[in-house]
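To: structure desk
From: M.T.
Subject: fold request, one chain
Message: Could you run this one when you get a chance? Sequence is below, nothing fancy, just the single chain.
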Amino acid sequence: ILKTMLDAWVVYMEDPQIAPHMALMASAFAYHADTHEEFVLQGGVRLVIELYSRSPVEHVRLCCLLTLLYLAETEHARKCIAQERGIMTLLTACENETHIDLVTNALKALIPFASSDDYRPELGQEGAIDTFASFLFSEQLTLQ
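Reply: Done. Structure tokens follow.
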């Protein structure tokens, strides 16, 4: 079903009435770790990243970031997130989002990548050090 949503429903990703349901469904699927492998194999990571990048609706973006946060728990899903340029999506969310919950969830999703020797070089190339350092001086106490 995820592959069909990505291919055939591409016009609905920007629809403010349908996109929230798609994002919430993806988040619900990814909540349980035993579904991560199937979610990844069916193109769920690409779907979530596409939804995040196309939708201006805050609820959709929050569900997409939560999905990436849930998926970051497993190594197989982390590999897929990195391959689909999800690390860059998470870093961009940290820098561009204005809602504190969106930034917090993006930062939490980046923790497994930052603690892994495999992904640390990619984080460095994408400018993550500057992004992380900017939160040390943030006026938002919850982000420090």
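Reply (cont.): The chain has ten helices and no strands. Let me know if you need anything else for the meeting.
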